[in-house]
Amino acid sequence: MKNSVNLGFIGISGRGSGMLKELLSCDGVKVPAVCDKYEDRALNGKKIVEENAGYTPDVYLDYKELLKRDDLDGIVCCTTWITHARIAIDSMRAGKHVAIEVGGASDIEECWEMVRASEETGKFCMLLENCCYNRSEMALFNMVKQGLFGEIVHMQGGYQHDLRDEISLGRENRHGRLYNFQMRNGELYPTHQLGPISKVLGINRGNRYISLVSMASKARGLHEWIVNNKGEDYDLANYKFNEGDVVTTMIKCANGETVVLNHDCSLPRPYSRGYRIQGTKGIYMEDGETIYLEGISKENKEHWTHTWEEFYDDGYIDKYDHPLWKKYRQDGIHAGGHGGMDFLVLSAFVESVKVGSQPPIDVYDTATWMAITCLSEQSVAMGSLPVPVPDFTKGMWIDREPYRRGQFCLEEVCTDCFSKEELE
Amino acid sequence: MKNSVNLGFIGISGRGSGMLKELLSCDGVKVPAVCDKYEDRALNGKKIVEENAGYTPDVYLDYKELLKRDDLDGIVCCTTWITHARIAIDSMRAGKHVAIEVGGASDIEECWEMVRASEETGKFCMLLENCCYNRSEMALFNMVKQGLFGEIVHMQGGYQHDLRDEISLGRENRHGRLYNFQMRNGELYPTHQLGPISKVLGINRGNRYISLVSMASKARGLHEWIVNNKGEDYDLANYKFNEGDVVTTMIKCANGETVVLNHDCSLPRPYSRGYRIQGTKGIYMEDGETIYLEGISKENKEHWTHTWEEFYDDGYIDKYDHPLWKKYRQDGIHAGGHGGMDFLVLSAFVESVKVGSQPPIDVYDTATWMAITCLSEQSVAMGSLPVPVPDFTKGMWIDREPYRRGQFCLEEVCTDCFSKEELE
Description:
By secondary structure, chain A is α/β, with parallel strands linked by helices. The first copy, chain A, has 2 domains: 5-130, Rossmann fold (3-Layer(aba) Sandwich); 132-327 and 362-423, Dihydrodipicolinate Reductase, domain 2 (2-Layer Sandwich), CATH 3.30.360.10. Chain A is 35% helix and 18% strand. Chain A is built from 15 helices and 15 strands. Chain A has helices spanning 14-24, 39-53, 63-66, 84-93, 108-121, 135-145, 164-168, 177-183, 191-201, 221-230, 316-319, 323-331, 341-355, 363-381, 420-423, and strands spanning 5-10, 29-35, 58-60, 74-77, 97-100, 125-127, 152-160, 209-216, 246-253, 258-264, 276-279, 282-285, 290-293, 309-310, 387-388. The first copy, chain A, has a 9-stranded mixed β-sheet with strand order 14-13-12-11-7-10-9-8-15, covered by helices on one side. Chain A has a 6-stranded parallel β-sheet with strand order 3-2-1-4-5-6, sandwiched between helices. The longest helix of chain A has 19 residues, at 363-381. The mean pLDDT of chain A is 94.
């Protein structure tokens, strides 16, 4: 196991800047090279490294030049959605492990290319799905593995986030979402809840997604926001956006579970990922942060008066905190992005590179989760026809063993990473 | 307009008993004939009329005999699901208006038969969708019509009700749900939230459902309940139920709105119809009873910190109470079933029969809403293929005018039924 790793950083947008700072705070990380195609952003990356780590990295405008270096163990990529897969593939082909920010794939072929690149080079490709490392998601994962929900039957999640300003002003703020919403129509951003869902369902390890269907509503929100905020003379005021305001996707699993995803970013609403876990013994819903577990939750006699408990206020989060979060909180919370989950997901990648063992979110997970986007677009384009989900493991999902269980493993709540006392 | 009506009552189960009492409390209603194929239930109907109305009705075991009477203006039918359509058709063919309890259709053809029977005889066929008359649904309908949600884009609803005991003990309690869950697989009970949704979306009046897709999860809940509560020697302990525990249905509208329905009756959970209304100006969600209206709800400066308000506690329900409910509450709440909505939906039918004008839920609504069940079964059976929804109005939906606006009308919040003062 290495004590330190050299990582190149590509893509220093607003999000990239935050992630670069997080990465520099991970133990044993050095970032000797930063890159962005915009010079001001690249120079900002240099400044961030100087201010946060005390040394000066080399600056690149072309990521392919950065990839020619032979002193890098891995790459962290925070570029725009449609470039993630190709940069991941190029990084692995250049002999580097790679971690990419979340987003969806544009075509199934680039998912296969990621898989082939990883299998042929032995390099890792990890989607930085931070929500897998959110405190409540990990506590719930812990509860599922302990059997508290019984057999899992149905799950829901979504990315429900009012981003009308960020999307509409995509040219002004150089954010790629605008073009995606102009041109595409489908589940553009599936992984924030699909990641935790996939880990609960054991996707690619004894279970897999077999088919999906998507349906898109009409597109009205961005037009109305632009007219109201930029005026009728603004050049996009009459633009007909392709992306439906609400896109719903239903996914069927090999073992019979169903998943419903909701993409909802262009209407006014409070944020929610709409997480739902439903099994033969109970249900959790993020909306309202409510939970009901048969035989555990407070009960009325009448069957129709089961009552919700509060996931936070009734103590579930504390009682079932995941060992990783217990440890993290005991060590003192890192003042990082999104409540700590950015730091944790980057730490998981760094640990994998140090140990030289596959990350908890591997190339099969990455390909499967990202593929939902282009499959969803296909389904919408064909009037909500069901489309098959590829098996990126090519049959291996049937009997794959978990990887080495590092402290960031997401396969199970295991006694290999934590002592019995830590698990209780 | 008649001052009183004679109604025959068919189907005196637990639900039927409650509805018969409600019906007898409606102004100007006489029930001279009751019917159930089980003699004990039929006699119970007689007793209910005697005790609640002070006269003795004739008792029938065969509804076709009851339909031969020439003193009945209409029929109220609370039999088992799969018999609603045929009894409705026979009633209209026998010259009686008919109201039927909720449920889904077994085949599209019986929906068309209902439409034909109503068109050919001039008799009404009203689905008794009580949730259309629930207080919060009516207040929300009022708010939609006043434009508070902007243009409606997406809606959700469901029937999420832990009925494992009622279903599993269907033979012991003579409830037809058991056989439906044994044999069928689809959205068996769509109308409780589809009714209010359809009225918000103007279905069959300027809008219509054009296609749907359904997906069913595996079936585990009933088996587990039976084993745990009736033991492994119970004859149904190893029965393989067809009905998936959670069935999700996506429906597309002619005007581009999407609807997601959720059927979830065989897992442990608190009750919810999961109502969601989402438009270009705001969102309401039954789960949590939360609402957010842009420019009205309390606001933070940051776009990602929109905050929910409480639909009840923050006064929305009082401020936007529907005129019908304002009047109903002023007159003194009727201590009836399901918080008053059973009384109101029956009153709507009674008013229609008295006036001789089509009811607020007409045969086209009834056929459309009930059809979702068999269409959903078809979609599930074909691996979630999309299926077209028939246009039961045969083109009339494009420019239909609202019927006479009685106080129970569900077409709009109109000044024909209520004064301006009542609407404010």
